[in-house]
Amino acid sequence: MTTTAMVEIKGIHKSFGPVDVLRGVDLRVRAGEVVVILGPSGSGKSTLLRSINHLERLNRGYVRIDGELIGYRRSGGRLRELKEREVLRQRTHIGFVFQNFNLFPHLTALENVVEAPVAAQRKPRREATEKALLLLERVGLSDKANAYPRRLSGGQQQRVAIARALALEPKVVLFDEPTSALDPELVGEVLDVMRDLALRGTTMIVVTHEIGFAREVADTVVFVDDGLIVEQGPPAQVLDHPRHERTKAFLAKVL
Ligand code: ADP
Ligand code: MG
């Protein structure tokens, strides 16, 4: 086992005004590991994910991805914030899948997937298009390449969003409740795509309430409450033998 983490989160604190939302979070994620984050609404899960790709500025602590400090550089023992251009470059290594898909409405499914490699990585359009077609095939949407988002179901839109997140060959993909906005009958097709990514060795951090997915796919389940990691471990341990009352109480509600 390697000792270097693909994602290293160390002592992060984040407050909004007087409200301490993250109160000292440490987490290490190995290459190829799937981490599922569970926790009540308002516990800081989205803020934690957003902190990983520097959509939030931290009050304390740091995040490294594949050894690289995100959003900051060290200078004379202090952390200084990087320029926006640098942060954008770093974000190209971090896929992000949102609850509400966030596709560009004026672009087709294919164009949505092609956009980032061409715009952010200056890949030739032709090469990006070939790759995008493969990714759409992988998420089962070859026949929808030329469809605009409004013509796609929520499940299809989310699968396009996943293909788009993969187009930059990210080092880690973050999912923030990727199935919460979907009609129940569409949840399975998105979870199937995520399970396939996991099997292919994608490093993933997934915030979800889908306990079945956590049990089956996660290597590690992390329970967050009130801005802290309360416990973490293999699914069988955290889901079936939680050690903390708060975890038990949460699971009793969602299971
Ligand atoms: P979760 O994703 O677990 O539901 P969030 O990370 O979205 O939780 O939010 C945690 C807490 O931080 C909530 O109380 C929320 O209201 C607060 N919060 C999140 N973002 C902001 C913000 N930009 N400004 C002020 N408060 C925020
Ligand atoms: Mg959230």
TrEMBL record:
Coiled coil ranges (UniProt) are none
GO molecular function, one example?
Answer: ATP binding
What SUPFAM superfamilies does the database record attribute to this sequence?
P-loop containing nucleoside triphosphate hydrolases (SSF52540)
SMART domains referenced in this protein's UniProt entry, alphabetically: AAA
Ordered alphabetically, the record's keywords are: ATP-binding, Cell membrane, Membrane, Nucleotide-binding, Transport
Q: How does it sit in the membrane?
A: Peripheral membrane protein
Name of this protein: Glutamate ABC transporter ATP-binding protein
Please report the organism this UniProt entry assigns to the protein. Answer: Micromonospora andamanensis
